[in-house]
Amino acid sequence: MKAVIYQFWEGGELSSGNKAGVELMKAYADRIGVEHVFDLNPAWPRDARIKRQNLGRYNPHYGAFTPIFDVSYSNYDYILFCDTDVVPVDKCNQHIFGEFMQMRMDSDMDIEIGICEEWMQPELRSIHNMGGISTANDKRWHSAVKKTYGTDMPVDNKGRPRVFNSGCVMYSAIGRLKAQKEFVDFREYCDLMIRNSLPSFYQGDQNYLGAMLPKFKWGLMDYKWNSQVFFKPGTSGNHRPVSDYRKNANFVHVQLRGADNYDMERLRKVVND
Prior knowledge:
CATH class: Alpha Beta
CATH topology: Spore Coat Polysaccharide Biosynthesis Protein SpsA, Chain A
Helix content: 25-40%
Number of domains: 1
Low-confidence stretches: 49-53
Strand order of the largest sheet: 2-1-3-6-5-7
Mean pLDDT: 91
Largest sheet: 6 strands, mixed
Order of helices and strands: EHEHEEHEHHEHHHEEEEH
Structural class: alpha/beta
Radius of gyration: 18 Å
């Protein structure tokens, strides 16, 4: 098995918190015996479908799809993309690639993409409008995507679109090749969001991937690989309460405002405390 963890940062110098996160992810990759690639302000692959400068505010986030289109990743059996704020807990030795392979073996389909669900988000978005991120807008997004691309994204038992986090995504070699064919033009997708007057958040890579997901054989990875910590919605100030959704976490997604500037010690404390 040839596997790689891919991370990138675009937008100038890497901040201290993200630098620490990358170093800890590299240490995890070394522990489980896989490659780790980090790109600082990467050049977009030549065979990408559009020029990135046309993608607006969420332009940098589409670098998450670099391994899909960059031919240098053609020889990998598995590719894991992780945001730089997704951080392994200390001494985590559980093999995320081995677990994904087992999930594929246990499934009755050849899973092409593995992703974790933000299971709490539909309820939170029904209560709070977080900068335009809301259940009402989720449903508008769902309707626009279904009408345009014919894809029917999964919903929960209350009819609310389920939310899948793009901060930790696994691709099989077959999934990568299929994505090259099935991913629609990024600019086309962003224009669709603009035409439907959806907030800019919905133009990002997470909702783009959510729109494409039904085209694939996808599997739900255990939440321990993308457990989240973020400030409680609807609060503000210097002593905001934290919503801590960690559960037997292996990777912690540190979504705390200001965490980009944490030093190594503080980041590890948050991740492991």
